[in-house]
Amino acid sequence: MQIVNHKEYTSKTCTITHGKPFGLIKPFFTDRILSNYLHRMILTEAGTVEKTRNSIAMYLVLLLTLAGACEMLIAQTAQSTLDTTRYFSFHNNYWINLHHFLYEKASGDQLAKLKQDGNEMLVIGETTVEKSLTPEQRSNLDGAIEYYKENIIQKGLLRGLGYERYWLQRQMGGKALADSTVSQEFVDVLNRVSNTYGETYWPIHKKHNEAILEFQIPNISKLEKRIIPRMEQLSLTPWPSGGKVRVDLTVYANYAGAYTPTRPIFNVIVSTIDPSSYGPEFLETIFHEGSHLLFRYGGTWRERIFENFEQEAYSINFPRHLWHASLFYLCGQVCKDEFSGVGITNYEMTMKTRNIFRKYHNDAFYAVLDNYLEHKCTFQETVSALLEVTNKLPKVN
Q1: Dist CA 18 CA 265 (whole Å)
Q2: Strands, DSSP E only, in 78-121?
């Protein structure tokens, strides 16, 4: 077993894949356990080493258990992999799609946001499927949706359901297996509704996800070679060597249509039923969400904003979304610049078309980041100028 230097590939809150999807997990956990065990042996006096022998069996069992779990995860990951590029690994996972399907049917968040923005979901044949459901199938589906309404949607996809998502990615076959990560009730609900979903909605969801990626993957492969290096330069953060970010393609996602949780693993989730899925906005979404890795917690960009804010006297509360608004603009502008190389012209960034972080839709904010993009100011000067601009902005969300 090869032990990698996990410090090179992990931060305070994220672990990304190494080479192949989830290839880092097994070395990371086993390295940590072996290090702890060796450290214990070193600290034990020679005369008391005998007392630790009984613990060796426990460590070996734990190592074997973790190794087995990681091998299962790698197998499930390979099973769901649609395609890979230099920087991304794209997946079409049955359980992840079922989970987000139930979440959206219970919350209605994504549809409500699309209607608020004047958009509608793509038509992929769900109405026909719904009409064909048997009474038993409808009852199974309604029961699962009701469970999600009462127990799941309150937690939130981004920060509250990370371990459920990670657990679902490890499931193989048509039946979920319980473990200490999730409740038995949650497992039972998913198992009861699995046959209904697998026989009805999943075939069209699976086909639709595959079609979207097949359409977009050529441009993703071409554009990432230009866009990711530029985002590395702007963020002052290198992409981990050999790392591939896992991207789960799901028909439904959260209210925004895409999100990137960092715990327990760094993972991008992108909806394919969003009307932009066949357009260049989908490409920007992939690169924006992937660039969260470069603008992550504890990273250069966020830390410098915090440090500068602490050093100066501002009349505002800490602008916790400033880093994200900056990422939206920088990535949007880089995408706009590079899209012309694949024949996409007259593109307008998502931040503007979807009115994201409207507080920062301000010429002064744009000017600061444009100067940074054109290398007219340093990173330190940029962060200071962004805070000055934010300090003067009107109080809007």
Answers
A1: 12
A2: 81-84, 88-91
| Surface-to-core class of residue 397, CB atoms within 10 Å of its CB (0-12 exposed, 13-18 middle, 19+ buried) | exposed
Structural element, H or E, at residue 201: helix 201-235
Q: Residue 18's pLDDT is what? A: 36
Here the tokens at position 112 are 């409500």
- Tracing tokens 């902005």 back to the chain, one arrives at 393
Work out whether strand 17-18 and strand 81-84 pair parallel, antiparallel, or are unpaired: unpaired
Provide CB contacts within 8 A for 150, sequence distance 6+. none
Q: For the whole model, what pTM was predicted?
A: 0.80
Measuring CA to CA, how many Å separate 220 from each of 34, 84, 143, 265, 335?
Answer: 39, 10, 39, 23, 11
* pLDDT over 80 at 266, yes or no: yes
Number of H helices, E strands in the chain: 15, 6
CA 169 to chain centre: 13
CA–CA dist 98, 76 (Å, integer): 16
Mutual angle of helices 322-339 and 280-291, in 10-degree steps: 130
pLDDT at 65: 40
Strand, coil or helix: 91? strand
